[in-house]
Specification:
single chain; 612 residues; mainly alpha; three-stranded mixed β-sheet; 19 helices; 11 strands
Length: 612
């Protein structure tokens, strides 16, 4: 695998001794398929040629290549000896994330015509030398995913292919191509780890999907909880604002009633005719009062409806700009510590389409269904506001008509009274009238408050529904993590049995594996010392520890770290909850961080590893 025109097909031809037609002619995307061939040095080693990554318009090629990589035991990363490009670096980091052992093949681009051929044959140091900077850059990109090359080989693949294409093999050109260094590396890996690599390939195809799904569930549950928390905050804020609006409107409406009624309290002073027209004049005054209050209160209620809509829109807009990150629940952070952080450093999101896993799409559909529940604060506009406009006016009109009929019809004595007698009658009538309006206003606004309360309750139910889904996803994530820990333990025991270490395999208590990086295994007492004195070769670094004494879990990280690197190591600080280690070695910080994260998951304590 490698970028387009890096020389992958030339390497295939050199290793298989055939298929010269696959060698490109200088065009990008020359090889567009997956093609496998058995190597000439061993019928048990098959080399699979993949399309190049990073070509313009070649996203499908990259996805095809990464898909093929998932089914491989070992990756040959072919890199031209002049540079590494951004797209190639991204693909290389992805390979590190999926945990495949990588042999870096630096393919020389020296021309084979004229003096170029002479330099390759007589002055190989000029051809293959001076590549330390490029190799350091490749190592840095791999370290970003926490991995290191399994081996590094310098070859001239085209020279090796041409040497085999001659009628008689050009032994001198073949030797100068250094292709035998690559076949030797493959044979060493085959002889040492063929069974382990095959087992890990089978395990990792399932383990990787489970890891990705667990991470997606964790991320999704955290998002749902944050969404529920934000929805609660928005609903509370919105309903507080709306209640203030209703209260202010109610106070304004009562003030309107008092003002309008107050202006009629001196109506008797305007009466000059105490004859038969008195009753009709009073009815006209009450009709005018009713018309005035009808217009005034309707304006108030129409303004209230508009302000409710405006408040809902404004609150929704304000809260929509509030990041869910402010509501993240940190209690879930341990679920995806190792895998999640490695994916983040490699630039891969949940669901990772390049990894060929569909969990993200499934998760997206589930989240969408969960947070798309029908309803919301906007439903208030239809939940009770409409019944208010006109309701108070209509109710009050009926009350007024009843008052007029009850007090004035058939009361002949009123026609003969003077103004003082009229005043004694008008005051209580206006008091009763004002009270009827206040009662009507209170009843209608209480209906609106009840509608607001019901809507607030429904908002709370929606938030609770989100949290219910989040809890179910959290439980599923925890169950997956438990299964992954059991897979890691069984995988470690299986690798030890492949390594003919049956007794050590039986002593594994638990294990945490970061594919392609390391395995942390807790052994019983005898198993720990056996692993320490006679470390097994599993194809992945094995760091052993033993069951710690209570309270010494964090300090136990030192035993594991000592197995990772042959360098002086210091326990700077340790307590019941954390430990700080320092390794006196030049190790990329991202690799040390991956070790720290894996130890945190394995031990259950905060571990910090720094390097010099």
């Amino acid at each position: 695998m490698g970028r387009t025109m890096a020389g992958k097909s030339s390497v295939l031809t050199a290793l298989s001794g055939s298929h010269h037609d696959r060698i490109g002619d200088g065009r990008q995307r020359f090889s567009r398929d997956i093609f496998g061939a058995t190597t000439s040095v061993s019928e048990h080693i098959e080399v699979v040629d993949t399309p190049g990554v990073g070509a313009h318009g070649g996203a499908d090629d990259t996805e095809m290549a990464l898909g093929a990589a998932l089914g491989a035991d070992v990756i040959l990363w072919v890199n031209s000896s002049d540079s590494i490009q951004h797209e190639s670096a991204a693909a290389l980091r992805l390979l590190g994330v999926i945990g495949k052992p990588i042999i870096v093949v630096l393919n020389c681009r020296q021309a084979l015509e004229g003096v170029g051929r002479l330099n390759l044959l007589r002055f190989p140091d000029r051809v293959f030398g001076g590549k330390d900077g490029l190799l350091d850059e490749i190592r840095r990109h791999m370290a970003a995913s926490g991995v290191k090359p399994l081996d590094v080989v310098y070859v001239h693949a085209l020279a090796a292919a041409e040497a085999l294409a001659a009628d008689d093999v050009d032994d001198q050109l073949h030797a100068a191509s250094r292709i035998d260094d690559l076949t030797d590396a493959l044979l060493r890996e085959h002889d040492a780890h063929r069974e382990s690599r095959r087992a890990l390939r089978l395990v990792d195809q399932t383990r990787q999907e489970a890891e990705e799904l667990a991470r997606a569930l964790h991320s999704g549950s955290s998002t749902l909880r944050a969404q529920a928390e934000r929805d609660r905050g928005m609903a509370t804020d919105m309903h507080q604002r709306l209640h203030r609006l209703v209260r202010t409107t109610g106070e304004g409406m009562e003030s309107d009633v008092e003002a309008a009624v107050g202006r009629r309290r001196d109506w008797h002073l305007t009466v000059t005719d105490f004859g038969t027209t008195l009753q009709s004049d009073w009815a006209d005054a009450l009709t005018a009062l009713q018309d005035e209050l009808g217009r005034t209160l309707e304006l108030r209620l129409t303004a209230l409806a508009e302000e409710i809509k405006s408040t809902i829109d404004q609150t929704d807009a304000e809260w929509s700009n509030v990041s869910l990150d402010q509501f993240k629940l940190r209690g879930l952070s341990g679920f995806d510590a190792v895998w999640g952080n490695r994916l983040a450093r490699a630039g891969v999101g949940a669901g990772g389409s390049l990894l060929g896993f569909g969990g993200g799409a499934w998760l997206g559909a589930q989240i969408g269904g969960a947070i798309g529940l029908v309803g919301g604060p906007a439903a208030l506009l239809t939940a009770g506001v409409g019944v208010v406009v006109g309701g108070i006016v209509g109710l009050a009109a009926g009350r007024i008509k009843g008052l007029v009929d009850h007090i004035f019809l058939g009361k002949d004595g009123v026609l003969r009274k003077r103004r003082d007698e009229v005043a004694q009658q008008v005051g209580p009538i206006l008091d009763d009238l004002a009270q009827e309006y206040r009662t009507a206003i209170t009843a209608q606004l209480n209906d609106l408050r009840d509608a607001l309360a019901r809507e607030h309750e429904r908002s709370e139910e929606q938030a609770a529904a989100l949290e219910h889904v989040a809890s179910a996803w959290t439980t599923a994530c925890q169950n997956l993590r438990s299964l992954l820990r059991e897979i890691d333990r069984e995988t470690t025991s299986g690798l030890l049995r492949i390594n003919r270490r049956e007794r050590l395999a039986a002593s594994v208590i638990r294990a945490t594996r970061v594919p392609g990086v390391c395995i942390f295994a807790e052994f019983d007492e005898s198993g720990f010392w056996e692993s320490w004195l006679f470390p097994p070769d599993l194809g992945e670094p094995l760091a052993g520890g033993k069951t710690p004494a209570p309270g010494a879990e964090a300090a136990n990280a030192l035993a594991y770290a000592l197995s990772l690197v042959d360098a002086p190591m210091h326990l700077i600080r340790a307590d019941g909850e954390s430990a700080h280690l320092r390794i006196d070695a030049d190790i990329p910080s991202s690799i040390a961080q991956t070790w720290s994260e894996a130890l945190e998951v394995h031990i259950g304590r905060h571990i910090q590893i720094e390097t010099t």
